[in-house]
Amino acid sequence: METGEVEDIEILASTEIGGGFLPDDIVELLLGAVHLYLYKKMEACITPLPKVESVKYISGGALKKWPKRLNAVPPRMISPINKEVSFKAFNRDRSLWAQRVSQYGNIPKSLSMGKYRNIMDMNAGIGGFAAVLSKYPVWVMNVIPYHTNDTLGIIYQRGLIGTYMNWCEAFSTYPRTYDLIHADGIFSMYMDRCDILDIFLEMHRILQPEGTVIIRDHIDILVKAKGIMGQMGWNGTMQHSERGPSHPEKVLIIDNSK
């Protein structure tokens, strides 16, 4: 911004508005905002692809064709220092989510019968939950909370879809869009950020009236959640996670079709 433009703002700020002039502190605040945002050096909004040694190589790593790419280690996960760690972490995540989904009561059977079509994972990680559901006739929206690790690129490389989200705000979708909502650690994540009641109300808005919610979290948070659910007319059953009865992580399944 040129000096003349700053002077124009000073003149505008001191213009008579509503029978009086803007106070000096307001003018100072406006000028401060100008210097803060308009004099800040712009950052690149497009991340360049990694350089390759030869034209025969693919920048960023080659992707396998669908459906093989779903269960292949995404190039973004492969560490140039120790690839073995990435392979182990990826395979461990695959095995973990296969085990977790198998323990979700009647959910797998209902998936096979076509009860659920539109599914949301509120904290998708690297897309492990969606990958397990790929054998069913469903589609999954993988959501990455904006303040967690940015794994959306990995989700895309696996052939899945996803988006970023701040769950203290409303999700951009129509009411009653989803048949099943999966929430892994969401309420622990947002305990100090906003009221979990607001998150519950947003889940209620985007869920089908007879939809299902699966919540994985600490037992203390789930006890509090059950109190809120009662006010919303939701009934849920709590069960142990794959870590056993002595671990504080539990699973709360809310089936509104019953």
From TrEMBL:
Instruction: Identify the InterPro entries for this entry.
Output: Put_SAM_MeTrfase, SAM-dependent_MTases_sf
Protein family membership: Belongs to the methyltransferase superfamily.
What are the GO BP annotations of this UniProt entry? Answer: methylation
Which keywords does the record carry?
Glycoprotein, Methyltransferase, Signal-anchor, Transferase, Transmembrane
Q: Which PANTHER family match?
A: METHYLTRANSFERASE PMT19-RELATED, SAM-DEPENDENT METHYLTRANSFERASE
SUPFAM superfamilies recorded: S-adenosyl-L-methionine-dependent methyltransferases
| The UniProt record lists the keyword Methyltransferase | yes
**TM regions (residue ranges):** none
Its top-level enzyme class, in one word, is transferase
Q: Which GO terms describe its molecular function?
A: methyltransferase activity
Q: Can the keyword Transferase be found in this entry's annotation?
A: yes
The protein depicted here goes by the name: Methyltransferase
* Location in the cell: Endomembrane system; Membrane
Q: Can you list the GO cellular component terms from the UniProt entry?
A: endosome; membrane; trans-Golgi network
Q: Which domain of life is it from?
A: Eukaryota
Under Enzyme Commission nomenclature, its number is 2.1.1.-
Question: How does this chain sit within the bilayer?
Answer: Single-pass membrane protein; Single-pass type II membrane protein
